[in-house]
Amino acid sequence: MTVASPSDLQPPAPNNQGPSGQGQSLGLQPEGWLRYLSFSLDHKVIGLQYLICAFLFYFLGGALAGVIRTELASPISDFVSRETYNEVLTLHGTVMIFLWIVPVVNGAFGNYLIPFYVGARDMAFPRLNAVAFWLIPPAGILLISSYFIKGGAAQSGWTAYPPLSITTPALGQVIWILSVLLLGGSSIFGGINFIATILKLRRPGLQLMQLPMYCWAMLGTSILVVLSTPVLAGTLILLSFDIIAHTGFFNPALGGNVVVYQHLFWFYSHPAVYIMVLPAFGLVSEILPVHARKPLFGYTTMVYSILAIVVLGLVVWAHHMFTSGTPPWMRLFFTIATSFIAVPTGIKFFNWLATLWGGKIALNSAMLFACAFIVNFVFGGITGVALAQVPFDIHVHDTYFVVGHFHYIVYGGTVFVIFSSVYHWYPKFTGRMLNEDLGRLHFLLTFVGFNLCFAPQHWLGLNGMPRRVAEYDPAFTTWNQVSSVGALLMAISTLPFLINVVVSAFNGKPAGANPWNALTPEWLTSSPPPVENWIGEAPLVTHPYGYGTPADRIDLGNATGEQIWGDSRR
Amino acid sequence: MTSLAPATSNTPELSSGEATHGSSHAEQDHGAHSDARLFGLATFLVADGMTFAGFFAAYLTFKAVNPLPEGSNYQLELLLPSLNTLLLVISSFTFHRAGRGLLRGDGPSCRRWLLITAALGLAFLGGQMVEYFHLPFGLTDNLFASTFYALTGFHGLHVTLGVICILIVWWQTRSGGRIEATSPFGLEAAELYWHFVDGIWLVLFGILYLL
Ligand code: HEM
Ligand SMILES: [Cu+2]
């Protein structure tokens, strides 16, 4: 491959002012790092605000996981009280889902990348965007503060199933609801913005089927957000009535119906698993072609798979309720529908493999995490399909098998992609490279720790260890201790990562505009990019994956967008 | 609905990307795009509609599987709510008249119809209050009573917001105000929202009162 030295595509922007002072039109914006504490309207600043804020919550959620695994290192409840264990478990799940995964893969990377990918200078509604971000810190602080009030935080898990959520201390649960409502609102505002940006703000001449795959992933995700999150909001409002006003929507003692809660809850929360994983699919589809120097395999099938997942994802929710007295016809329908999701998911999986196949693979940290994602995800996907089969699910529902399943998807899948993305885009964010040795050490510790922590949980679950309890049968001790050691390794693995991102921000090798010789539009500008993304015209990138094609051989350092993309094939 | 230049409008929440840039750059790049704000609002209304859809689904399920306990009281009168339905339907047409007035450049007519629409909305709310006070059951009496109040209350909240929006629009259509024939976004947004609230009521009326 003869990619010319990319050097600097654009003269580096000396300050944050675009030409003719567009910077001012974004309002009174502080300069330097203070921007990140301001009500900035710049999508790149907002993206990084999401990223940093979510990482802070991630470390908190991780510490909570540490408490859980410490408690579970022995079969008796000795490290914390049972009530505290329930609170910690609930906070851990809520923080990880609503304050870490969802804001990072949607808010952070979405805001940073989508305007670049559609050739726009910002999101469709910059002010709504800033509002969406600034709902998150107060919601998070509110949630955490509930731990310190009388009665403590919510104890009913991230699902808040009644009657448990009605009978545990009320104040913590109400605060939990309020905070999830705020986070849901933030998520909906974000979703509206992404849909409008992708559909309405595309650079003239850019067709939908020419967009980088992450745009499709975010479009699909945002549709799910807009359709399902409001249902959760409505449900939680009804739940709060049950708690505060003593209505009986979900209270059997008052003639209510708990199963209705479960239906409504999972109508959001199954799509929510795709809200957490579809964007990761998109991100990994950007990363693999760059480091394998090959076009993304099967672009069109990828797009239709995403759309199929969106549609199917909306009609499979009751696979979480096979033990809730669901009638046989319902079981049948939801088993079949859920099993069908394996088809588009499998298509994506094989497309990624085919992208790698015969590529010129650079096994750097970004690629290591991306490849490990494929491995972990396929395992989690297989256990998922297994769980969709009623006879099997009845055996392992609410056991550690389920915990193993979704951690393989959410951690092994999405979190691995998040790390991969950080290694991939950090040079763009900061203008400096991350240290590869530390990156590989981080990967090794994470990969070993992760599998050590979560693989044994499948075995534990199959043998009947229930989830969400602080005590267990001593027969399960050994594998729980293995799991806890894995968790310790994962905790240690964040150290090289933290050192890397902090030290490299000051001492990293200068990255230049396009250190990976990548072809997507965010690399066709300086690192970090100027306020309105490009100096001069936005490039028209119609073949974002032209690696190994004529496009790849043009002198990227001096070419214009049109020259690069004009004669290339996807 | 419109293909007007986004230009100067500065609507607090939904200011468009174009509006904040307003530079030669932005015009060059986005000039060909239509205004995304109404589209954004429509997307939001889809989300809002899903909240109602969740409530409706809950109500219908309760109705299908949770029998009303012995001796509990859940009876609805039809007369007043039917009148209310009529008011709301008419108000959709009056709002439409207001919009036509604005586009014709007939400010006074536009503002008159806006006030009529707001009055109809207020009358609806008043009617609902009267109904609330005459119903023989309270919020926590039984499952259906709770669902009834939650649903109609949530919808009433939407109507209240709508009336406030109409009054704001009315204020902004005064001569020299922000909304004019060439920049009707505010009015169009409020109108879209009002039709939505109206449509939701029709579904609600069908499910809650007629079914
Ligand atoms: C794609 C990303 C996925 C994510 C993020 C995910 C996440 C989750 C989560 C969080 C749970 C636990 C729910 C609880 O608290 O009980 C769960 C359970 C389940 N998942 Fe997945 N999952 C994914 C993929 C799949 C796939 C591909 C399938 C099947 C084809 C599947 C089938 C199931 C089933 C049937 C359960 C219910 C198990 C039970 O509660 O007994 N999942 N998943
Ligand atoms: Cu699911």
Task: Set down the secondary structure blueprint.
The complex is a heterodimer of chains A (570) and B (211).
Chain A: H1 22-25, H2 43-71, H3 82-118, H4 126-134, H5 136-145, H6 164-167, H7 170-200, H8 213-244, H9 258-292, H10 299-313, H11 328-356, H12 365-387, H13 390-396, H14 400-430, H15 436-462, H16 477-507, H17 561-566
Helix pairs in contact in A: 2-3, 2-4, 2-16, 3-7, 3-8, 3-9, 4-7, 5-7, 7-8, 8-9, 8-10, 9-10, 9-11, 9-12, 9-14, 10-11, 11-12, 12-14, 12-15, 14-15, 15-16
Chain B: H1 17-21, H2 24-30, H3 37-65, H4 79-104, H5 107-134, H6 143-172, H7 185-210
Bound molecules: protoporphyrin IX containing FE (HEM) and copper (II) ion.
Return the CATH class of chain B: Mainly Alpha
| Range of helix content of chain B | over 70%
Which homologous superfamily in CATH is the superfamily of chain A? Cytochrome c oxidase-like, subunit I domain
Helical content band of chain A? 55-70%
What's the mean pLDDT score of chain A?
Answer: 91
**Overall 3D geometry of chain A?**
globular
Uncertain spans of chain A: 1-27, 557-570
Oligomeric state, counting identical vs distinct chains? heterodimer
- What is the architecture of chain B at the second tier of CATH? Up-down Bundle
Would you identify the CATH architecture of chain A?
Up-down Bundle
- CA(first)-CA(last) distance of chain B: 35 Å
- CATH fold call of chain B: Four Helix Bundle (Hemerythrin (Met), subunit A)
Principal-axes geometry of chain B comes out as elongated
Provide the gyration radius of chain B in Å: 20 Å
| Number of beta-strand segments of chain A | 0
Name of the top-level CATH class of chain A? Mainly Alpha
Structural class of chain A: mainly alpha
> Can you summarize the main beta sheet of chain B?
none
Strand content of chain B: under 5%
